[in-house]
Fold this sequence. Notes:
Elements: E1 6-12, E2 16-22, E3 29-36, H1 40-53, E4 56-64, H2 73-89, E5 94-98, H3 101-110, H4 116-142
Parallel strand pairs: 1-4, 4-5
Antiparallel strand pairs: 1-2, 2-3
Helix pairs in contact: 3-4
Amino acid sequence: MPQSGRVLALDVGSKRIGVAVSDPLGITAQGLETIQRHNKRKDMETLGRLLKDYQVREVVVGLPLRLSGAEGTQSEKMRRFASDLESHFGRGPALVPEMHGHAEANRLLRETELSIAKRGRAVDRMAAILILQSWMEARGRQK
């Protein structure tokens, strides 16, 4: 992955992957089309195209935590997914802890005038945007 470029955020589920990308300066986040999962090979091919098309320099993946802040089964799945990304692309993603990603995405989308069906399709994308924004804000505080 190149040193300059965008940051790609993933909200990984068993059926879909929500995707968001930063602008080249890493200031704003926009959602991309949600990826329907098929199998590991096809999922990695799709992600590889996104990495190339958007000249991605870094990938971040949401790490779901329990309300207590502890890791659970979903966290283990995300760590395995991160390991798969590292094996496939030679560089692992940053893991961004999240406890309320989908709940917050649903809350924000309820405030829009989207139909329930469209909201359902947008929630993964919105969760990815929230992951990316959280990561960018944390990076900004570190500087």
